[in-house]
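job 3f2a | input accepted
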Amino acid sequence: MNEKRVRPAVPEDAPIIVRLIQSLAIFEEEPVETVQLTEADVLRDSFGESPLFETLLAELDGTAVGFALFFHNYSTWQGRRGLHLEDLYVEDHARGNGLGMDLMRELARIAEERGCARFELSVLDWNPTREFYHRIGFEDMTEWLSYRLNEPGIAKLARKA
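job 3f2a | predicted structure (161 res):
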């Protein structure tokens, strides 16, 4: 049958979102225990008073098999917001049905509707989906390097004189 659909997540989808993020961790060869996100976090941060992110779910025959989690950023150069895709994932058994493209197309529609100047994402250097992103028009930002400061580093920096 392979009936597919992309839809915005609703609060009742919190357990599905957590499950799919745990599946993503396994795909990225990380222990599932590294995912600290809980259903309560999803409810608070996606459906609470001040949502920090949104999620699209990809369904195949009525079952959620993929997701795209995104939020807005801001371009000081362009004076407009952008859309940042934090995670995109489709379960292995559901790949090949065009769900990744369906999610990306819906994200592009959202970015266009909201007047976003940019649509950005990061991808692991070993991830085979890099070719997919190239094929649909994304460019490597080779002149930009990603940096991260985790909680211990944040605490240490916050206390520096």
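job 3f2a | The chain is about 30% helix and 25% strand.
job 3f2a | closed
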